[in-house]
Amino acid sequence: MTKKYYWLNLFIFSLGILLSYGGQAQTFKPIFEDGEGRSSIIAPLGFLGVNTENSSIRFQYFYSRSAELNPKIPAEIKRNRFYWGVDVAGSAAGGLSDLFSYGSFTPGTSASLFLGHRSLFFPALDKQGAPVLHGKNEIAIEDWLTLRVGGQVANYTLYDESLPFANQIFSERFRGYLTQLAYNVLIGGATSIGVSWDVARVNNIDDLTPVQFRQQTVIPDPGGQTTRIFEEEVNAYAGGYESFIQNTFSLDAVHYFTPASDINYALHAYGRLKHAHSQKVYRAGLGFYLFPQSKIAGGVFVESGDLTNEISGTPQFSKRIDMGLTVKFILPGLGVPSP
Asked: Are strands 243-256 and 227-238 parallel, antiparallel or unpaired?
């Protein structure tokens, strides 16, 4: 077996172990994501969170309504299955400290709109408001489909030593977009599975080399007796910058282990197939999350951004492993969440 397929099989085996456990009750939290802030599990809840791997701060909010009596048939329950939401994020390749500069949010901001439908194939409640159980084991199952459409704006300072001296430092304004379709299913209250496909216009800023240098401007006075030297610290990215269209196929699986305890914990396994420039790049990772009774939840994750070493040029697998931390404050619902 080649090393490429060994790691793929290892990920699939770990995913199977993760999904093999049972569960009874789950308070779902929209916290699970990879180092790029990407996830195919889009929970219709709000949060304010930080991801250290991609240096981002995100705000997400959803609106949904609860089930209510059917005005036409008072003995029946009417479910309000549609929901919508917004997501706003700021990120900087140079770290979280670079997000704020002279009081302004910089250099990258993205915003998305969500529109979703609950209980597409598996209703959670019947017409009388009782839970719907499926199969011989009478397992509660619910699913939801979410469409996400958004855009991104970013400003970068680039350095290209191959250009004439006066043009080596220049600014690049990036305008990107994202369209994602995600399907999620919640099984037995404790296991969540998500699959999604998205197409986006992205760039390779994370692959460029950050450089820092001082630039001096010398201004002599007319009499030639005094010289003023102004210094400016420049942070830029060196390398061949480009933007391109990328398709991403995602698979996420989450399992809660102690839903009835004071401190719940969960595992998150995920895989990504990114297709751009006729190249296929695999990303995979595993996260461990804690959920105290408070509104704060967080976790750590380890991942490989190039699982099979297609583009990194780094044969040693351990050097293609990154670690990140995400912490989120779960916001109260706007409207009443649908059961």
From this structure: unpaired
Residue 52 has pLDDT above 50, yes or no: yes
- Ranges of each domain in the chain: 3-154+176-198+245-330
Cα separation, 58 vs 181, whole angstroms:
20
pLDDT(135) > 60: yes
Which residue has 């970068």 as its token pair? Answer: 156
Give the integer Cα–Cα distance in Å for 253 and 184.
10
Tell me if the pTM is above 0.85: no
Q: Which residues of 167-185 are buried (b: 16+ CB within 10 A; e: fewer)?
A: eeeeeeebebebebebbbb
HSE-up of 36 (CA within 13 Å, CB side)? 20
> pLDDT per residue over 314-323, tens digit each?
888 888 899 9
- Please say whether the dihedral angle defined by the alpha carbons of residues 6, 282, 38 and 50, taken in this order, is positive or negative: positive
Report helix, strand or coil for 19: helix
DSSP string, 114-153: EEEEE-SSS-SB-TTSPBPEETTTTEEEEEEEEEEEEEEE
Reported as a pLDDT band with limits 50, 70 and 90, residue 69 is low
pLDDT at 142 over 80: yes
What values do phi and psi take at 221, rounded to 5?
-80, 160
For domain 3-154+176-198+245-330, give the CATH superfamily: monomeric porin ompg (2.40.160.40)
Give just the sign of the alpha carbon dihedral 152, 284, 196, 247.
positive
